[in-house]
């Protein structure tokens, strides 16, 4: 198993609401133009009960009510987890994504989501994780038609607490024990997310006291994306934070985040986000 020495991390800040739900008040990452876009929807995030934390990372619920002539396209760069997404259109499982994920909102509607812990669905997937990258799968192919139909009915329930309670009850039978390599990859990803100084796989290897080859095996088995790609992704999360805060000097940002040069940052940003950093900054106040 991975050995992480010298630090003690608190995984999440957990507060209990009056309903008994564990409210996730940790910083939201990977949401493009977050400050400007949050006016269009209501997002709530909740943790599962303790015994399910190795299976479910969090529940998330989004509601919106837009004027008849208004739409909003929300763009996210999510974590590499599998998500169960329940909407009026479908109940689907979304695999890890390598590009910005777009969702258009109009009228009055909602989405209910489950973010699974890394590697948690391995036992119910018929193919290796890499085959699900940038793919959406009908949830019935993974959880069966009966459960999928039951999940679709959650959209009419108004209580977040009841929705989360039913999700826990329905999904618990699909939980299995966590293997050592799954625990290791979860800790490796936490290191990448939390340690800004890790910008290369060799640094991750040294920090975790695992060989690069072993790290690659863990990522291929439980995520389907490489450690190198995840390092790029979370560095871009930090770039997005700087740009959303109004820091548009790309040279300063590239130096702070230890890019080899400004062109390296611009290339990575455009490849994954779809626009240059300056283009992103210019569009901060523009919406559909």
From TrEMBL:
InterPro entries: AraC_XylS_family_regulators (IPR050204), DUF6597 (IPR046532), Homeodomain-like_sf (IPR009057), HTH_AraC (IPR018060)
Keywords on record: DNA-binding, Transcription, Transcription regulation
Matches recorded under Gene3D superfamilies: Homeodomain-like (1.10.10.60)
Pfam family, one: HTH_18
Keyword match Secreted: no
Start and end residues of each HTH araC/xylS-type domain: 186-283
GO MF terms held by the record: DNA-binding transcription factor activity; sequence-specific DNA binding
Protein name (database record): AraC family transcriptional regulator
């Amino acid at each position: 198993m991975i050995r992480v020495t010298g630090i003690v991390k608190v995984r999440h800040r957990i507060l209990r609401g009056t309903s008994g739900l564990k409210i996730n008040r940790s910083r939201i990452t990977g949401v493009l133009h977050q400050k400007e876009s949050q006016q269009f929807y209501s997002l709530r995030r909740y943790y599962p009960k303790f015994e399910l934390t190795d299976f479910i990372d969090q529940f998330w619920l989004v509601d919106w009510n837009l004027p008849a002539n208004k739409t909003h396209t929300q763009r996210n760069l999510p974590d590499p987890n599998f998500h169960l997404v329940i909407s009026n259109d479908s109940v689907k499982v979304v695999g890890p994504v390598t590009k910005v994920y777009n969702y258009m909102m109009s009228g009055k509607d909602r989405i209910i989501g489950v973010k699974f812990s890394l590697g948690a669905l391995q036992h119910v997937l018929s193919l290796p994780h890499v085959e699900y990258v940038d793919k959406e799968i009908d949830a019935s192919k993974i959880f069966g038609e009966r459960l999928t139909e039951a999940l679709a009915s959650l959209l009419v329930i108004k209580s977040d607490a009841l929705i989360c309670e039913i999700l826990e009850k329905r999904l618990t039978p699909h939980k299995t024990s966590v293997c050592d390599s799954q625990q290791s990859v979860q800790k490796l990803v936490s290191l990448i997310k939390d340690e800004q100084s890790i910008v290369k796989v060799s640094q991750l290897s040294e920090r975790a006291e695992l060989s690069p080859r072993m790290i690659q095996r863990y990522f291929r088995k439980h995520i389907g994306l490489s450690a190198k790609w995840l390092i790029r992704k979370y560095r871009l999360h930090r770039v997005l934070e700087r740009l959303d805060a109004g820091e548009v000097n790309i040279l300063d940002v590239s130096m702070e985040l230890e890019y080899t040069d400004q062109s390296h940052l611009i290339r990575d940003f455009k490849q994954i986000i779809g626009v240059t950093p300056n283009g992103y900054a210019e569009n901060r106040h523009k919406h559909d």
